[in-house]
Task: structure prediction
Amino acid sequence: MLAGVPYDARDPDLMEAREHARRVMAQATAELDPERRQEIYASVLGSFGELSFIEAPLFIDYGTYFHLGEDCFLNTNCVVLDCAPITFGDRVQCGPGVQLLAADHPREAARRAADEELARPITVGSDVWLGAGAIVCPGVTIGAGTVIGAGSVVTKDVPAGVVAAGNPCRVIREV
Result:
């Protein structure tokens, strides 16, 4: 899975890891103390930078492969399918409902029918803002200082220091 080669998501070890993450996310969502909630998130994520903050609920596949830099913020209802590493620089901000989807599927119907899956990493540079409802697709890198408009579908790499928006997401101007 992490090597970027096809894998079986029904593997018992992978299924158990996802279930563990869901149990931890349910615990975090039910926690009323915001400080304790952050501790719960930090316990399952690969990295949880100082001053980072996540609004509940957060939906993750594994957590282990999601890395937050310093002072990041995820608003409510974010989805993180981290079957490949998803890495944030520092001071990344995500609006409500942002989706980070490292999960991918073969284009051939027979391979999909056999439950074959793929995964490609996502990298988000420092000082990026992902507007509400933005979707970041597998294998995408977003450069530092970039703003992704609300509702955008990011299917390809976006350079540093730009404002980009749309479906598919396109550079509109420099910051």
